[in-house]
Amino acid sequence: YYPLPLNAGAIEGQLIHHVIEEWAKSLRRGNDPGSMRSRFKAALRELHWSLKENPRVDAARIMASVSLDACIAKAFDFVRDLELPVASLQPSGIKRQNETRTIHTDAEEFWITVDDPPLKGQLDRVRNGVITDYKTGTPDAGHTDQLIFYAVLWWLKYEDPPARLELRY
Fold first, then answer.
1. Whether pTM exceeds 0.85
2. What spatial distance separates the first Cα and last Cα of the chain, rounded to whole Å?
3. 153: exposed, middle or buried (C-beta count within 10 Å: 0-12, 13-18, 19+)?
4. Cα 2 to the chain's mean position, in Å?
5. pLDDT tens digit sequence for 65-106
6. With CB atoms counted within 10 Å of each terminal CB, which end of the chain scores lower, N or C?
7. CB distance 130 to 164 below 8 Å
8. CA distance 74 to 18
9. Contact 25, 34 (CB under 8 A)
């Protein structure tokens, strides 16, 4: 195993995903999630130690290019979009007639797996059949391809297309 090179955009994306996931877990458990800023600071400290072990990364340079304030702002934008009470952060779904399969209508970081063909992907957010993928950094054509892949997974799994696709930066 040889570690991959990383850039500030990738680091910010990882941090935002990690902190929001942990924040949502705290809410689901009924705990006070605490300060978003303190969660990001702790995640940055932990990340800094792991970056020091990566010979392909100048940890100090990468850490200097990661903006704590930008990460917090993006996380608050995401959380503000939830517009749901805490109880509904847990995945909920509806059952199709005559089927045991559940269509998840409200979920965060939702894994979708298809057996034939064997494929899987992790959707950032699903709301009423709308698949939203969050990205940091600059727009890239590959991001659209990834969102279309998620739509195909959804269609293969539930035999219906998603209501809409959203790509948010």
1. no
2. 31
3. buried
4. 25
5. 888 888 888 887 777 665 444 333 334 444 434 444 556 567
6. N
7. yes
8. 13
9. no
